[in-house]
Amino acid sequence: MSVTGRVLQVNIAVPERSTAKRVGTTGINKQPVTHPVAVAAPGGARGMLSPQHASGVAGDQIFDIKNHGGDDQAVYAYAREDYDWWEKELGRTLPGGIFGENLTTEGIPVNGALIGETWQIGATLVLQTTFGRVPCSTFQAKMGEPRWVKRFADQNLPGAYFRVVTPGNVQAGDEIRVLDRPDHGVTISEGFHAWMRAPDLLAQIADLEGLPESLRAEIRHKLKL
Protein backbone atom coordinates (compact mmCIF):
# COMPACT_ATOMS: atom_id res chain seq x y z
CA MET A 1 0.00 0.00 0.00
CA SER A 2 2.06 2.93 -1.29
CA VAL A 3 1.58 6.62 -0.63
CA THR A 4 0.22 8.25 -3.78
CA GLY A 5 -0.72 11.75 -2.66
CA ARG A 6 -1.68 14.01 0.20
CA VAL A 7 -4.37 16.37 1.37
CA LEU A 8 -3.27 19.92 0.66
CA GLN A 9 -6.30 21.64 2.24
CA VAL A 10 -9.45 20.70 4.14
CA ASN A 11 -12.19 23.20 3.26
CA ILE A 12 -15.40 24.00 5.14
CA ALA A 13 -18.36 26.09 3.94
CA VAL A 14 -18.67 29.73 4.87
CA PRO A 15 -22.32 30.34 3.86
CA GLU A 16 -23.03 33.27 1.59
CA ARG A 17 -26.01 34.66 -0.27
CA SER A 18 -26.76 33.18 -3.68
CA THR A 19 -28.84 34.75 -6.45
CA ALA A 20 -28.50 31.69 -8.66
CA LYS A 21 -31.06 29.42 -7.00
CA ARG A 22 -34.20 29.63 -4.93
CA VAL A 23 -32.38 28.34 -1.84
CA GLY A 24 -31.01 31.86 -1.38
CA THR A 25 -27.92 30.68 0.51
CA THR A 26 -25.02 28.60 -0.75
CA GLY A 27 -22.21 26.63 0.89
CA ILE A 28 -20.00 26.65 -2.22
CA ASN A 29 -17.74 29.23 -0.56
CA LYS A 30 -15.36 26.88 1.23
CA GLN A 31 -12.36 28.07 3.22
CA PRO A 32 -9.40 26.04 4.54
CA VAL A 33 -9.13 25.02 8.18
CA THR A 34 -6.00 23.88 9.99
CA HIS A 35 -7.50 21.60 12.63
CA PRO A 36 -8.50 17.92 12.24
CA VAL A 37 -12.04 17.50 10.92
CA ALA A 38 -14.30 14.49 11.51
CA VAL A 39 -15.71 12.75 8.43
CA ALA A 40 -18.64 10.30 8.54
CA ALA A 41 -21.53 9.24 6.32
CA PRO A 42 -24.39 11.76 6.54
CA GLY A 43 -26.83 8.86 6.73
CA GLY A 44 -29.23 9.56 3.89
CA ALA A 45 -29.80 10.53 0.28
CA ARG A 46 -29.92 13.91 -1.45
CA GLY A 47 -32.91 15.95 -0.38
CA MET A 48 -33.45 13.94 2.81
CA LEU A 49 -31.11 15.81 5.14
CA SER A 50 -30.79 19.31 6.55
CA PRO A 51 -28.05 21.68 5.27
CA GLN A 52 -26.10 21.04 8.48
CA HIS A 53 -26.15 17.27 8.01
CA ALA A 54 -26.07 16.78 4.21
CA SER A 55 -22.26 16.80 4.09
CA GLY A 56 -20.07 14.09 5.52
CA VAL A 57 -17.55 16.69 6.70
CA ALA A 58 -18.19 18.05 10.18
CA GLY A 59 -18.92 21.77 10.18
CA ASP A 60 -19.66 21.86 6.46
CA GLN A 61 -23.08 22.91 5.12
CA ILE A 62 -24.95 22.16 1.87
CA PHE A 63 -28.02 24.26 1.16
CA ASP A 64 -29.08 22.89 -2.23
CA ILE A 65 -29.90 19.50 -0.75
CA LYS A 66 -31.99 18.53 -3.77
CA ASN A 67 -28.89 18.32 -5.97
CA HIS A 68 -25.97 17.97 -3.57
CA GLY A 69 -24.99 16.04 -0.45
CA GLY A 70 -26.07 12.74 1.04
CA ASP A 71 -24.15 9.50 1.42
CA ASP A 72 -23.02 9.30 -2.22
CA GLN A 73 -21.79 12.90 -2.19
CA ALA A 74 -20.49 13.00 1.36
CA VAL A 75 -17.10 14.44 0.40
CA TYR A 76 -15.95 16.33 -2.69
CA ALA A 77 -12.28 16.45 -3.75
CA TYR A 78 -10.43 18.43 -6.40
CA ALA A 79 -6.78 18.17 -7.40
CA ARG A 80 -4.37 21.09 -7.21
CA GLU A 81 -2.90 19.93 -10.50
CA ASP A 82 -6.26 20.44 -12.23
CA TYR A 83 -6.59 23.85 -10.60
CA ASP A 84 -3.19 24.71 -12.10
CA TRP A 85 -4.52 23.77 -15.55
CA TRP A 86 -7.58 25.96 -15.05
CA GLU A 87 -5.42 28.87 -13.88
CA LYS A 88 -3.60 28.84 -17.23
CA GLU A 89 -6.87 28.45 -19.12
CA LEU A 90 -8.63 31.31 -17.30
CA GLY A 91 -5.62 33.55 -16.68
CA ARG A 92 -6.43 34.00 -13.01
CA THR A 93 -5.42 32.64 -9.62
CA LEU A 94 -7.67 29.91 -8.23
CA PRO A 95 -7.24 29.22 -4.51
CA GLY A 96 -8.13 25.79 -3.20
CA GLY A 97 -11.78 25.62 -2.19
CA ILE A 98 -13.11 28.00 -4.85
CA PHE A 99 -14.71 25.08 -6.70
CA GLY A 100 -16.48 24.11 -3.48
CA GLU A 101 -14.43 21.03 -2.68
CA ASN A 102 -13.87 19.71 0.83
CA LEU A 103 -10.47 18.25 0.04
CA THR A 104 -7.89 19.91 -2.16
CA THR A 105 -5.37 17.20 -3.04
CA GLU A 106 -1.99 16.92 -4.70
CA GLY A 107 0.00 14.03 -6.10
CA ILE A 108 -2.99 11.82 -6.88
CA PRO A 109 -5.08 11.91 -10.09
CA VAL A 110 -8.58 12.62 -8.78
CA ASN A 111 -10.18 12.62 -12.23
CA GLY A 112 -8.13 9.58 -13.17
CA ALA A 113 -9.42 7.62 -10.17
CA LEU A 114 -11.71 4.74 -11.08
CA ILE A 115 -15.39 4.84 -10.17
CA GLY A 116 -15.60 2.73 -7.00
CA GLU A 117 -11.92 3.14 -6.10
CA THR A 118 -11.16 3.30 -2.36
CA TRP A 119 -8.70 5.64 -0.66
CA GLN A 120 -7.32 5.66 2.85
CA ILE A 121 -6.64 9.17 4.12
CA GLY A 122 -4.61 9.55 7.26
CA ALA A 123 -4.79 6.86 9.92
CA THR A 124 -8.38 5.60 9.65
CA LEU A 125 -10.56 7.44 7.12
CA VAL A 126 -11.54 5.36 4.07
CA LEU A 127 -13.49 6.90 1.17
CA GLN A 128 -14.83 5.44 -2.07
CA THR A 129 -15.25 7.41 -5.28
CA THR A 130 -18.80 7.58 -6.66
CA PHE A 131 -18.95 10.03 -9.59
CA GLY A 132 -17.88 13.43 -10.87
CA ARG A 133 -19.38 16.76 -9.90
CA VAL A 134 -22.04 18.03 -12.34
CA PRO A 135 -21.73 21.84 -12.63
CA CYS A 136 -24.69 24.03 -11.70
CA SER A 137 -25.83 27.65 -11.87
CA THR A 138 -24.52 28.38 -8.37
CA PHE A 139 -21.06 27.27 -9.49
CA GLN A 140 -21.30 29.52 -12.55
CA ALA A 141 -22.37 32.50 -10.44
CA LYS A 142 -19.48 31.87 -8.03
CA MET A 143 -16.91 31.74 -10.83
CA GLY A 144 -18.25 34.69 -12.81
CA GLU A 145 -16.98 33.16 -16.05
CA PRO A 146 -19.00 33.26 -19.31
CA ARG A 147 -20.72 29.93 -20.07
CA TRP A 148 -18.89 28.37 -17.16
CA VAL A 149 -21.18 25.34 -16.82
CA LYS A 150 -20.48 24.33 -20.44
CA ARG A 151 -16.75 25.10 -20.23
CA PHE A 152 -16.35 23.09 -17.06
CA ALA A 153 -18.30 20.15 -18.45
CA ASP A 154 -16.40 20.16 -21.75
CA GLN A 155 -13.01 19.67 -20.07
CA ASN A 156 -13.89 16.43 -18.21
CA LEU A 157 -12.13 17.62 -15.05
CA PRO A 158 -15.09 17.44 -12.64
CA GLY A 159 -13.35 16.33 -9.46
CA ALA A 160 -14.74 13.38 -7.52
CA TYR A 161 -17.48 12.77 -5.00
CA PHE A 162 -16.92 10.12 -2.34
CA ARG A 163 -18.98 8.03 0.04
CA VAL A 164 -17.57 7.26 3.49
CA VAL A 165 -16.58 3.61 3.99
CA THR A 166 -14.84 4.03 7.35
CA PRO A 167 -15.23 7.28 9.31
CA GLY A 168 -12.23 9.13 10.66
CA ASN A 169 -10.51 12.49 10.88
CA VAL A 170 -8.79 14.41 8.11
CA GLN A 171 -6.44 17.36 8.13
CA ALA A 172 -4.05 19.12 5.78
CA GLY A 173 -0.91 17.07 5.22
CA ASP A 174 -2.59 13.66 5.57
CA GLU A 175 -1.28 10.99 3.25
CA ILE A 176 -3.61 9.46 0.65
CA ARG A 177 -3.22 5.79 -0.25
CA VAL A 178 -5.15 3.88 -2.90
CA LEU A 179 -6.46 0.71 -1.24
CA ASP A 180 -8.40 -0.90 -4.07
CA ARG A 181 -9.23 -0.33 -7.75
CA PRO A 182 -12.14 -2.08 -9.52
CA ASP A 183 -11.45 -4.17 -12.61
CA HIS A 184 -13.76 -2.19 -14.91
CA GLY A 185 -11.16 0.53 -15.61
CA VAL A 186 -13.65 3.40 -16.01
CA THR A 187 -12.37 6.66 -14.55
CA ILE A 188 -14.28 9.52 -12.96
CA SER A 189 -13.52 11.62 -16.03
CA GLU A 190 -14.76 8.94 -18.44
CA GLY A 191 -17.97 8.33 -16.51
CA PHE A 192 -18.62 12.07 -16.33
CA HIS A 193 -18.10 12.40 -20.09
CA ALA A 194 -20.57 9.60 -20.77
CA TRP A 195 -23.22 11.24 -18.57
CA MET A 196 -22.72 14.78 -19.86
CA ARG A 197 -21.75 14.40 -23.50
CA ALA A 198 -21.90 10.82 -24.79
CA PRO A 199 -25.27 9.12 -24.21
CA ASP A 200 -24.16 6.28 -26.51
CA LEU A 201 -21.66 5.32 -23.79
CA LEU A 202 -24.14 5.25 -20.91
CA ALA A 203 -24.78 1.53 -21.24
CA GLN A 204 -21.11 0.95 -20.46
CA ILE A 205 -21.37 2.60 -17.05
CA ALA A 206 -24.89 1.60 -15.98
CA ASP A 207 -23.77 -1.41 -13.96
CA LEU A 208 -20.39 -0.24 -12.68
CA GLU A 209 -19.34 -1.15 -9.15
CA GLY A 210 -19.45 1.91 -6.89
CA LEU A 211 -21.87 3.96 -9.00
CA PRO A 212 -24.56 5.69 -6.88
CA GLU A 213 -27.82 3.76 -7.06
CA SER A 214 -29.77 6.96 -7.76
CA LEU A 215 -27.56 7.70 -10.76
CA ARG A 216 -27.76 4.09 -11.90
CA ALA A 217 -31.56 4.37 -11.86
CA GLU A 218 -31.44 7.59 -13.88
CA ILE A 219 -29.14 6.00 -16.46
CA ARG A 220 -31.34 2.92 -16.77
CA HIS A 221 -34.38 5.17 -17.17
CA LYS A 222 -32.67 7.09 -19.98
CA LEU A 223 -31.72 3.81 -21.63
CA LYS A 224 -35.27 2.49 -21.07
CA LEU A 225 -33.90 -0.63 -19.39
From TrEMBL:
Molecular function terms, GO-annotated: catalytic activity; molybdenum ion binding; pyridoxal phosphate binding
Organism domain of life: Bacteria
UniProt-listed PROSITE patterns: MOSC
All copies of domain MOSC, residue ranges: 31-179
Gene3D superfamilies: PK beta-barrel domain-like
Protein name: Sulfurase
Organism this protein belongs to: Winogradskya consettensis
Lineage, highest ranks first: Bacteria, Bacillati, Actinomycetota, Actinomycetes, Micromonosporales
